[in-house]
Amino acid sequence: MTPTIVFLAAGMSTRYGRLKQLEPVGPKGEALLDYAAYDALRAGFSRAVLIIREELEDTFQAHIRQRWPEELEVAFHHQRLDDLPGIDPSPGLKAVLEERKKPWGTAHALLTTRDLLPDPFVLINADDFYGPSAFSQGLSLMRRELRKDPWDPPGFGLVAYTLEDTLTRHGGVTRGICSVDRRGWLEGVEEAVDVKRGGASITGSTLSGGAMLLSGQEATSTNFWIFTPEVFPLLERGFQEFLESVGSAPGAGAGGLGPQPEYLIPTEVNRIVAGGEARVWVLRTHDPFFGITHPQDWEWVAGGIREMIREGHYPDPLWASGAGAGPA
């Protein structure tokens, strides 16, 4: 097994206003994905796959070539709108493809990497800081035998944080609120949007617009998933259903579609778990979590990095000068 970390880095950074995946937050210009790569390498990962937009490959290549060590193998993968595994587009879907500009979403991004991931892997956001515990726990779970019986469904994993530890002071964020049974298996993830502090309370909204009052102690997904290749047939079936619904929707291909639906990992995990097609073990961590959503988040993130350097958790600079990774 080649332990692999997969970075979701094809986002368009609409709210942030610039490429937050490479935003310098460390003292020597390090980005959050550099700290993730550092934590992954010292936990025992030896390979990284970055899912990016094709037009940004030179930018990512230049950043990584100057910083990451050669022992971390690096591959780049482009998420393309026309990568539709096993699907013959209907006339309605062809019309949608002609108009669509936004990527299909995180679950589609993962599905398109199916040929690059023959072994278990961890999947994370490139613009979040997860801390070392998540990577060591993720690798430990990858090496464990989750399927105790050959008739059991596949076993996957999720590293969950405590909600209040993931919130910025600078605006609402989207978080996955997890329901976990007494044995530690995930029962479901509910997407909460515009989650923010308001005095002594934490509020948010459901995707349908319902109000949510949250305690702050909820187990929360920030997209740190542990998967095996068994996830790909499940994603392919789900994506086919998703595209059928998009292609047959009223107004598809007629222009002015409004919000463009996305095929998202939490939504798909919910479908898989509810259907008994797989189980997801929830691991908890209390490491610091930082994420870049709003421009004002920069100081929160950079300040947190500076504090961990002062405490001796990370060197400064993070990587030796001229480390020189070799992207594939």
CATH superfamily of the domain at 4-149 and 222-261 and 288-310: Spore Coat Polysaccharide Biosynthesis Protein SpsA, Chain A
CATH-scheme architecture of the domain at 4-149 and 222-261 and 288-310: Alpha-Beta Complex
Rounded to an integer in angstroms, the radius of gyration calculated over CA atoms is 19 Å
Structural class: alpha/beta
Strand % is 15-25%
Tell me the span between the first and last alpha carbons: 19 Å
User: Spans with pLDDT under 50 lasting ≥5 residues?
Assistant: 250-258, 322-328
Quickly count the helices.
8
CATH class of the domain at 4-149 and 222-261 and 288-310: Alpha Beta
In CATH terms, what is the fold-level topology of the domain at 4-149 and 222-261 and 288-310? Spore Coat Polysaccharide Biosynthesis Protein SpsA, Chain A
Estimate the global geometry from the Cα principal axes: globular
Biggest β-sheet, characterized?
11 strands, mixed
Helical content stands at: 25-40%
Strand tally:
13
Chain-averaged pLDDT: 86
User: N-to-C SSE series?
Assistant: EHEHEHHEEHEEEEEEHHEEH
